[in-house]
C-alpha cells in the first residue's frame, strides 16, 4: 500500500537450511501443528517513510496561491484603477482555479492522512479525534461545493479543527525538533477557539443590545489576536530553527536554538515593507501599489476587531504571509514541516471557513504523524541529505546503505 512502505532491513545472514531427513514435529494423530501466531502489536509495521507527507509541501503551495490570489489580490483589484477590469478578471479566475485545485488535493491528502493515523502509534484519544474531526471537516468541505455552509456547521468545523490542533501540538511537544512548529500549531488552535468565542459573544451582544457584552467581545477578540500574533512570531522562529546535528558525545552540550536566521530576518523585513505600504495606502495621495497592499492585507484582518493598533494587525497579517511563503519556497531539511507551517498560517485567520479548517486539520495530522514516526521521518531527512551531499547514485549502482534508524533522542538534526 502507499501508506505502508517499510524501510530496507539490515542484511541478516540466511538461516541454515533444514536437513532433508528432518521433519516438523507433529501433534497427536499425525497432523501438523498450527502455525505460530504473532502478537497483535508485533504484526503492525511502523509507518516508515510515510509517502503522504511528501505531498504536504506541494499542497501548501496551492493553499498559499489560493489565499494570495483568491482571497487577497482578486478582491483588492476590483475598482482599483480604470482599465484593469480584464486583469482583475484574470486574477479572479486564477484564484478560483487555485482554490478548486487545493480543495480537491486537500480532501485527498486529508483522507490519506486519516488512513495513516489509523495505523500509527499516536494515542487512541488523539486517533479518535483525528478520525472524527477530519471526517466531519471533509464532509462540510464537500457540502460547500454545492451550497452555502450554515453558520452552525461553520462554527463546528472551526472548533473541531482547533481541538485537533491543540491535541496534536500537545503530542508533538514531547519531540524536541518538533517544538517550534508544534508551538505555532497549538497557538493557532487556541487563537481559533478564543476567536470563535468572541464571534459568539458578538452575535449575542447584537441580539440583546448589551454594552457589557460588547466590551467583553472586544476583550476576547484582543486575547485571540494576541495568541494569533504570538503564533506568527513562533512560526518565524521556526524558520530559523537550528539545523546543526546534535553531538553524540555524552559530555557534548546541546546547541542553542537559532532564534534568528536569514529566512526569519527576510520575513520580518518583507513584513515591515508591506506594512509601511499598507499604512500609506489609506492616504488620498497613495499610489496604486500602496492601495493594493492596503486592500489585500485588510482581507486578512480578523473579526471581531481587536483593541490593538492597526499597524500591529497589518504587520501580523503581512508576516504570516511572508513566513508561509518562505516555508514552502526555501529548501528546508524537513519539507513536511515547512508545508505544515505554511498550512497552519494560511488557516490562522479563518478556521471557520471550510478550506481554512481543512488546512488546519491537515497541518495537525502532519505534525502528529511526523512526531510519532521518527524512523520514517528521519529516514526521509537522511536520504535528502545524502542526495545533497553526494548527488544521486550512479546508474547500475543502487545505494545499498540502508537508512539509519534515529530515535526521539537524536533530536536536533
TrEMBL record:
Lineage top rank: taxon: Bacteria
Bias (Pro residues) ranges: 11-23
Disordered as annotated region, ranges: 1-43, 388-413
Transmembrane segments annotated in the record for this chain: 59-84, 96-118, 124-142, 149-170, 182-205, 212-239, 300-329, 353-371
Keyword annotations: Membrane, Transmembrane, Transmembrane helix
Name of protein: Uncharacterized protein
Organism: Sorangium cellulosum
Phylogenetic placement of the source organism: Bacteria, Pseudomonadati, Myxococcota, Polyangia, Polyangiales
Amino acid at each position: 500500500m502507499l501508506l505502508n512502505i517499510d524501510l530496507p532491513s539490515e542484511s541478516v545472514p540466511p538461516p541454515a537450511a533444514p536437513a532433508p531427513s528432518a521433519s516438523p514435529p507433529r501433534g497427536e494423530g499425525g497432523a501438523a501443528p498450527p502455525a505460530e501466531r504473532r502478537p497483535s502489536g508485533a504484526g503492525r509495521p511502523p509507518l516508515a517513510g510515510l509517502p503522504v507527507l511528501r505531498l504536504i509541501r506541494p499542497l501548501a503551495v496551492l493553499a498559499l496561491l489560493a489565499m494570495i490570489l483568491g482571497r487577497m489580490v482578486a478582491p483588492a483589484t476590483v475598482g482599483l484603477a480604470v482599465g484593469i477590469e480584464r486583469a482583475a478578471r484574470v486574477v479572479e479566475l486564477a484564484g478560483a482555479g487555485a482554490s478548486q485545485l487545493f480543495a480537491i488535493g486537500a480532501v485527498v491528502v486529508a483522507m490519506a492522512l486519516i488512513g495513516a493515523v489509523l495505523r500509527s502509534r499516536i494515542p487512541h484519544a488523539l486517533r479518535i479525534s483525528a478520525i472524527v474531526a477530519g471526517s466531519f471537516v471533509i464532509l462540510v468541505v464537500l457540502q460547500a461545493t454545492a451550497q452555502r455552509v450554515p453558520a452552525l456547521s461553520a462554527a463546528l468545523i472551526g472548533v473541531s479543527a482547533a481541538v485537533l490542533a491543540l491535541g496534536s501540538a500537545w503530542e508533538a511537544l514531547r519531540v524536541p525538533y518538533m517544538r517550534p512548529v508544534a508551538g505555532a500549531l497549538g497557538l493557532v488552535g487556541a487563537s481559533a477557539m478564543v476567536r470563535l468565542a468572541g464571534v459568539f459573544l458578538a452575535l449575542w451582544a447584537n441580539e440583546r443590545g448589551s454594552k457589557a457584552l460588547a466590551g467583553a467581545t472586544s476583550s476576547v477578540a484582543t486575547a485571540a489576536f494576541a495568541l494569533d500574533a504570538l503564533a506568527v512570531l513562533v512560526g518565524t522562529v521556526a524558520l530559523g530553527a537550528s539545523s546543526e546535528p546534535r553531538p553524540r558525545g555524552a559530555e557534548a552540550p546541546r546547541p542553542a536554538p537559532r532564534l534568528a536566521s536569514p529566512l526569519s530576518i527576510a520575513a520580518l523585513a518583507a513584513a515591515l515593507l508591506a506594512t509601511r505600504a499598507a499604512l500609506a495606502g489609506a492616504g488620498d495621495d497613495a499610489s496604486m501599489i500602496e492601495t493594493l497592499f492596503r486592500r489585500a492585507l485588510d482581507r486578512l484582518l480578523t473579526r471581531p476587531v481587536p483593541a490593538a493598533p492597526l499597524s500591529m494587525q497589518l504587520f501580523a497579517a503581512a508576516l504570516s504571509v511572508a513566513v508561509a511563503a518562505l516555508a514552502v519556497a526555501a529548501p528546508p531539511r524537513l519539507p513536511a514541516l515547512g508545508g505544515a507551517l505554511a498550512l497552519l498560517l494560511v488557516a490562522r485567520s479563518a478556521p471557520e471557513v471550510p478550506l481554512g479548517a481543512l488546512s488546519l486539520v491537515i497541518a495537525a495530522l502532519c505534525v502528529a504523524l511526523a512526531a510519532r514516526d521518527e524512523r520514517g521521518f528521519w529516514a526521509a531527512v537522511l536520504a535528502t541529505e545524502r542526495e545533497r551531499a553526494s548527488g544521486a547514485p550512479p546508474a547500475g549502482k543502487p545505494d545499498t546503505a540502508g537508512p539509519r534508524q534515529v530515535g526521539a533522542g537524536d533530536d536536533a538534526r
